[in-house]
Amino acid sequence: MITEFTPIQSLIGGSLIGLASVLLMLTLGRVMGATGILAGFMQPASPRDWSWRAALLAGMVTAPGLILLTTGQMPAIDVPVSTPMLILGGILVGIGVTYGSGCTSGHGVCGNARLSPRSIAATLTFMLFTGITVYILRHVIGG
């Protein structure tokens, strides 16, 4: 398994995520946590609450189409695991965001920026278990 080193694309992507997070906090006073946004979209508190969530999710879904229009090709996506492993990973992430009261975008980007002790602990936990998972998959199982 080869890990790509893409510092320019990563810097641009991270900057855009940070900018979007700041703009959402400035305009609506909301934290940009993807799982919280999706959960609020599925069970909105009000029509106004649903509309900004729908717009944000629509942007996430249509971004590859904009890349296609701009560059003439879809972004390259290489998923080096099987469908059952993707499903298992999705279930584990779902459990993790439930017990962690949020996801990496909410805690890692927004919570850490606010110096939230809970978000710092959650992010350290995410990073620790990510490292353990990668080690097991690459060196123990041999994926």
Features:
mainly alpha; 143 residues; 76% helix
Provide the fold topology.
Elements: H1 7-28, H2 34-42, H3 47-71, H4 83-99, H5 104-113, H6 117-141
Helix pairs in contact: 2-3, 5-6
Please explain how this structure is put together:
The chain is an all-alpha fold. It has one domain (7-141). The chain contains six helices and no strands.
Distance from N terminus to C terminus (CA atoms, Å) equals 7 Å
Order of helices and strands: HHHHHH
What is the C-alpha radius of gyration, as a whole number of Å? Answer: 17 Å
Our estimate of the beta-strand percent is: under 5%
Tell how many strands the DSSP assignment holds: 0
Overall pLDDT: 87
Structural category is mainly alpha
Helix content: over 70%
DSSP summary: helix tally: 6
- How would you sum up the major sheet? none
What is the general shape? globular
Number of domains: 1
Assembly context of the chains: single chain
As residue ranges, the low-confidence spans are none
Précis, in short:
The chain has 143 residues and is an all-alpha fold.
